[in-house]
Input
Amino acid sequence: MAAPTRDRIIEAAATLLTEGGREAVSTRAVSAAAGVQAPTIYRLFGDKQGLLDAVAGHAFAAYVRDKSALAKTGDPVDDLRRGWDLHVGFGLSHPAFYALMYGEPRPGVENPAAREAAEVLAAQVRRIAEAGRLRVTEERAAHLIHAAGSGLTFTLIALPPERRDPALSTLARESVIAAVTTDSPARPEGGLVGNAVALRAALPEAKVLTDSERSLLAEWLDRIATAT
Output
């Protein structure tokens, strides 16, 4: 019985969020909409923030599934483009949920759904690194892509639909891609950093090395990749 009740509460909170924003998602309002007592919410979610995290996870589950299901092509950079477009499109289609996910960062605390989305992005960046086309570390690339993508999405959300420039997302996306990738692994601008990043991405496959040796080599490669 707990699962249906939990789902009903999440659905009620999601409807309130969509119709009235975060302020509308009070414990009293959710209790009334879901037909439960307030203690039930605390028992199932711990507190209001736990409920909001569950609502965000509910909304982002479909998004993460769609992003994870994007068919991989032979060009990981182009796959990243499609992931960016999906991210921005979700934010514009579900602004209340997007703001719930990314609008109020809590230092040291990561929403489970946001963490899952970040893992999907990290996997996309890892493929670019493995192809030898990343000019910065994987972590730096992922952080820059996320920061630019979320900032762009919030900017578009704040604008009336008729004032949204459809080219803005493309310009931001291509600027970020140019900053973190090279055109091909053979291009000289990848240089030492690009080679270090590519080798770092492939390091787990180096079974000939011991764990300690891999750890030491990873430290050296990270130092090279972050030297600029």
